[in-house]
Design brief:
There is one protein chain. This protein has twelve helices and 13 strands. By secondary structure, it is an alpha/beta fold. It has two domains: 155 residues, Aspartate Aminotransferase, domain 1, CATH 3.90.1150.10; 245 residues, Type I PLP-dependent aspartate aminotransferase-like (Major domain) (Aspartate Aminotransferase, domain 2, 3-Layer(aba) Sandwich), CATH 3.40.640. The longest helix is centred in the last third of the chain and has 41 residues. It is globular.
Length: 421
């Protein structure tokens, strides 16, 4: 009898299951579902980026050492030079003592940092502090690296004192996401500045995820902690072309990280990628040449979808539905919708997510995926009563008509599910 093949390592049992593929399977099994779940925009990349691929297609059969051969582990010089201008001159990020890295999306950049930081025996793993609500892939990356994600209920705009109270001798970094996924909150400069100084004073890294940096609609501007003088020594800035440039499937992101970590980061990057895909880097150069001016009108149109979401939630509340947004979503393209606990009873966000797809053909991501279990975690009290199950709503992918239909299904489905309890 042939012995069974080895199964997966037991440590993977402790890693979160990815919610987006799970939800995607439900959607595919329910034709006609409209998704408020996927964190994508509804536009593709600049035509200049597409022209790069077209030119490469015409050159098939001709050797091209800038496309076909391995390249530098950090990224090609032309793209790195453009990123230095975009980050340093345009955004004011302090790059003195930092190195730039091109990665397969900013998720890969975070994963590389987690691999570099996490150490220690299983009983005493390295810790990374993640304010709740956290981004689920950050948690997964820390777990995969053998570290411990420390979830801190510090508020949707995190209270630095609560983050400081969570620091232990094993803490290696504090993570912030602004504009925030999943809440849409834009964190004020004084808060981010205090967190950055907190990290510096404790010998920690401040990992600043800024994938949605251009997506701001309210009075609070986006601000990067990496722009503080001397911040390069203790700050990791993560950014991406996935959102603003409509290049989610192209998988191109980048980070500025302390040069002291470069030798270790090179080990991770070389093992996973060897080098960033070179044709995609050429497309990224073309996209960055189009610049923020190309992105601006598209993002402004999403501001209209945001207003549509706010108006629809206000109307649903006026019609008697016991729900509310946990915060004013002034950035990214998300909002956190919470039901009142007294109306929801034992209904969890996970059950709500599944039943909305299967029974009402509308998809949204449950709050549990971001550390927001019903009646627990951030913003439990406040206006509207105690908090029940939470859903993350994404309006980035839908036009006006589809968003209207999706929200109609969502609120109709919630009304039906609550009435049946």
């Amino acid at each position: 009898m042939t012995p069974p093949s080895p199964g997966p390592a037991q440590r993977l049992d402790g890693v979160l299951n990815p919610v987006i593929p799970e939800l995607g399977s439900l959607v595919r099994a329910t034709p006609g579902t409209i998704s408020l779940a996927q964190g994508m925009v509804g536009w593709g990349p600049p035509r200049e980026a597409l022209a790069t691929l077209a030119a490469a297609g015409k050159a098939v059969g001709a050797a091209d050492t800038t496309r076909d051969a391995y390249g530098p582990v950090q990224g090609d010089p032309e793209l790195l030079a453009m990123l230095a201008v975009a980050l340093g001159q345009e955004q004011g990020i302090d790059l003195h003592g930092a190195d730039l890295w091109v990665t397969a999306g900013s998720n890969m950049a975070f994963n590389a940092i987690a691999q570099v930081l996490c150490d220690g025996p299983p009983a005493e793993p390295s810790e990374l502090i993640l304010p709740v609500p956290w981004y689920f892939n950050h948690v997964m990356a820390v777990q995969l690296a053998g570290g411990r994600p420390v979830a801190v209920d510090a508020g949707l705009v995190p209270d630095p004192q609560k983050l400081a109270a969570a620091i232990t001798p094993r803490t290696r970094a504090i993570v912030t996401v602004s504009p925030n996924n999943p809440s849409g909150v834009v964190m004020p400069r004084p808060v981010l500045e205090t967190i950055n100084h907190l990290c510096a004073s404790h010998g920690l890294l401040h990992i600043s995820d800024e994938a949605y940096g251009q997506f701001v609609y309210g009075a609070e501007p986006h601000w990067s902690p990496g722009s503080l003088p001397g911040a390069a020594a203790h700050t990791v800035t993560l950014q991406s072309l996935s959102k603003a440039y409509g290049m989610a499937g192209w998988r191109v992101g980048f980070m500025a990280a302390p040069a002291s970590l470069s030798a270790a980061l090179a080990k991770v990057q070389d093992t996973v990628l060897i080098c960033p895909p070179r044709l995609i880097q050429q497309a990224a150069v073309a996209a960055l040449a189009a610049g923020p001016a190309w992105c601006r009108p598209r993002i402004a149109a999403l501001g209209e979808r945001r207003a549509q979401l706010l108006a629809a939630v206000a109307k649903a509340r006026a019609d008697g539905l016991p729900l509310r947004l946990l915060a004013e979503p002034d950035g990214a393209f998300y909002g956190l919708l919470a039901l009142e606990a007294s109306a929801a009873g034992s209904l969890s966000g996970e059950e709500l997510m599944r039943r909305l797809v299967l029974e009402h053909r509308v998809a949204a991501v449950c709050g549990e995926s971001f550390g927001l279990a019903a009646n627990g975690g951030v913003a439990t009290g406040g206006a509207g009563g105690s908090r029940g199950p939470v859903l993350r709503l994404s309006y980035g992918l839908l036009d006006t008509d589809d968003l209207q239909e999706a929200l109609g299904r969502l609120f109709g489905g919630i009304k039906a599910l609550l009435a049946a309890r």
